[in-house]
């Protein structure tokens, strides 16, 4: 069973930065497009950003565009989410997810397209 483990969450003041990481094990990492989602209390889980299998294509939600950056290291089976200029509305549990879709440049925003999920890491941004 493929396993995804997120790390790097925490408490930060507005305007600060955090870097989340997600390590994938028991699978062929370079076969997966990777996505980050977030879920605030009482809301649906929403797409934040994603990166294609080889890292050629990235896609971001409008709410984070220009502030968040996704990268991946296929040699280390890791995908990262660098979050800058954080806002209180970024507070949520952040999840990484893996999509086994075979199209090389595919980055999907659809939650149900992702096959594997991590347990999530809490990000809290104070005002």
Account of the protein in words:
By secondary structure, this protein is mostly beta strands. Helices cover 0% and strands 48% of the residues. The chain has no helices and eleven strands. Strands 2, 4, 5, 6, 9, 10 and 11 form a seven-stranded mixed beta sheet that branches. A four-stranded antiparallel beta sheet has the order 1-3-8-7, with no helix packed on it. A hairpin with a 6-residue loop joins strand 5 and strand 6. The termini are far apart. The relative contact order is 0.31.
Question: Measured on Cα atoms, how large is the radius of gyration?
Answer: 13 Å
Percent helix among the residues?
under 10%
Q: What is the rounded distance between the termini?
A: 40 Å
Q: Mean of the pLDDT scores?
A: 96
What coarse outline follows from CA principal-axis ratios? Answer: globular
How large is the count of helical segments?
Answer: 0
- Please report the total strand number as a whole number: 11
State the major sheet.
7 strands, mixed
* SSE succession: EEEEEEEEEEE
Poorly predicted regions are none
Strand content: over 45%
Structural class: mainly beta
